[in-house]
């Protein structure tokens, strides 16, 4: 089992992913937003950790991903980078950090690597992002694409809907994937599309595809850690498999703590520290002597309790 002390040679790179695609090995990926989660994921043997802008919803409580800033992304990227040494680390470019200009896209991508500790960046969109992808890749930064349901375009898409259901829409997504590959993406996330389309795109691309609700035909799979652990109770996408229900366990544990405190069962003696009896006796005597001195001096307003 990989650990924090894993050697540099075991570090997973974009070339590792490409090799897995060639040899038919499935790629595993999950989101992570903090040090303990990243450490656990890295030690579990995950192939990639995405510091996704989904943190805006599952960690920061925003209604969607749009309010997430570069500063927030960098904060969480640094925490993840401190916890993971083996997995490929991909940082999300948040809304409006790459759409304004190619120069801005390159600058913010560089920040995710230089100060965020990431190995690569991810951005959303198809053909309209090809120029930005080329600019970022030409600066030496690996780029992961993202097509299908793109959360940053949720208003334009009319909500959280499955994409590519018609032949025309599916063909456009395939074209987008091919354009992104040609622009230099090392991998593409395909989110919320029919399983047939997920497989079709995966078979026609030379680079790995990572599915999020896109079926088994993709080269790898990605889920949000908080969904897998049952930590996010606002809603659960139908394509998520929950492996735990930690939110309920947390609520129960907090309830038991509150009950113990109110009933004065906590802290118990084993959770407390005690003074040496003689030291405590000496302390009480010193306080009594000081209070007596203050009283005799006529200073009745100053008391030690």
Give your account of this protein's structure.
The structure is a single chain. By secondary structure, this protein is an alpha/beta fold. The chain folds into two domains: 8-242, Alpha-Beta Barrel (TIM Barrel); 252-296, no CATH class. The chain is built from twelve helices and eight strands. Helix 5 crosses helix 6 (130-138), helix 6 (130-138) runs parallel beside helix 8 (167-183) and helix 8 (167-183) packs parallel to helix 9 (195-204). It is elongated and about 95 Å long. The model is unreliable at 1-9 (pLDDT under 50).
Summarize the structure.
By secondary structure, this protein is of the alpha/beta class. The protein is 43% helix and 12% strand. Helix 5 packs across helix 6, helix 6 packs parallel to helix 8 and helix 8 packs parallel to helix 9 (195-204).
H and E string: HEHEHHEHEHEHHEHEEHHH
* CATH architectural grouping of the largest domain: Alpha-Beta Barrel
Gross geometry: elongated
Quote the CATH topology of the largest domain. Answer: TIM Barrel
The first-level CATH class of the largest domain is given as Alpha Beta
**How confident is the prediction overall: mean pLDDT?**
93
Portion in strands: 5-15%
Alpha-beta content class: alpha/beta
The CATH superfamily of the largest domain is Phosphoenolpyruvate-binding domains
Largest sheet: 8 strands, parallel, barrel
Number of domains: 2
